[in-house]
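Is adenosine-5'-diphosphate placement plausible here? Inputs below.
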Amino acid sequence: MLIVAAFIKKKHNLHEQIVKSTFAHMSIKVKNAVKLYGTQRALNDVSFSISSGEVVGFLGPNGAGKSTMMKIITCYLAKTSGDVNVCGYSVDDDPIEVKRRVGYLPETNPLYLDMYIVEFLRFIAGINKTPKSRVEDMIELTGLGPERKKKIGQLSKGYRQRVGLAQALIHDPEVLILDEPTTGLDPNQLVEIRGLIKELGKEKTVMLSTHIMQEVEMLCDRVIIINKGTILTDQPADALRSASQSKAVLVRFSGAINTSAIRKINGIIRVKKMEQGILVESEKHIDLSRVLFEFAVNNKLSIDESRPYELGLEEVFRNLTNK
Ligand code: ADP
Ligand code: MG
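Reply from A.M.:
I modeled the complex. Tokens:
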């Protein structure tokens, strides 16, 4: 009996070793993930991996499948098919091990508004079987100190996000999954929460969803773009921008112009009236300042203002999907 038990234990240890060595540097591995809601395909054969220590932006418009993917990785939702592993553990076979290694800030950041911050974090520590002493560390880490006496319901959205981050971090997970952590924050809160995420990224593997390109550039090493449940691209953040085949300026003329006349100029891709002026997008090699100057002269106008316009996610998307 003892021998059998020893043999089983040895076999188990061997299995553990194989699991650990195979996935030692891989934090998240998703292979052919499919999620159907009824007949709708929210995820359509999604595959990617994230190495230990990486900070990856998961970028896509509303309804792309970001939250669905994150819920599957964190074991909050069952996939229809495919394989998902976190730190070598399968979400199907070892959900408890997965949850131990993952900290999750859901999109809705559900909090108990009637609880005091400390009370709530102690409650979460209890659920995670984490020493209560971690609560004070988390309050310090996430900068909740000045508000610590308040009930969660009395906090601003920025401070609620800090509480959300504190609960995600309390069991010191290796991997952080943050679902649109900055949506709905005012500009000051945005800067603070981004700063906090940047700090956390030095220690942890982070997967962060957003629809803001600028945020990805600020925080992430790599970008995965998803649209309609399908991965469009997966590459380093700087490569994505330089892969863009166009550039743009925002220009204001001294008088009214006919936008379709600009559109007809060779190399101009798009002309759009915006609140701050006219957005003119051209192929990369075009000398846009010269083209617009000539256009102004020909129309007896001058240029009041012209400045480079950062092409946002929408443009990167368009370029990617038009290929
Ligand atoms: P994202 O987070 O990128 O905005 P979601 O993962 O929330 O996208 O949603 C992906 C798609 O799946 C959307 O079309 C959405 O309407 C649909 N969806 C999400 N959750 C459900 C659900 N519980 N039941 C049915 N459809 C859903
Ligand atoms: Mg979402």
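Short version: The mean pLDDT is 89.
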